[in-house]
Amino acid sequence: MSKFSYKKLFKKLIDKDMKNTELMKKAKVSKSTFYKIKNGDNVTTDVLVRICNVLECDISEIVECVNDSSEEI
Q: Which residues of the chain have pLDDT under 50?
């Protein structure tokens, strides 16, 4: 089974020298939603689009689908 990884998002924040709190404010993302992202949980596409607008990027630059290695077969 696959899941979303937001590692690219955090790498992009480092590249743009932007703090998490600055992104949350500009993209109007709540703390609880941001913690979902940090934990790799699902968030709505609306949230991802707002983040992309702030970072001026495509969704593929902040999210990727990866195999969930924690799941047993």
A: 73
Q: Whole-angstrom Cα distance, residue 17 to residue 43?
A: 24
Quote the pTM value.
0.86
Residue type, 7: K
The rounded distance, in Å, linking the Cα atoms of 62 and 73 is 28
C-alpha 55/C-alpha 5 separation (Å) is 17
Q: Nearest CA to 55 among 21, 7, 23, 19?
A: 23
- In sequence order, the β-bridge partners of residue 64 are 5
Q: Let me know: does 57 contact 12? Beta carbons within 8 Å.
A: yes
For residue 35 the two structure tokens come to 């913690």
Q: Tokens 């983040």 map to which residue? A: 51
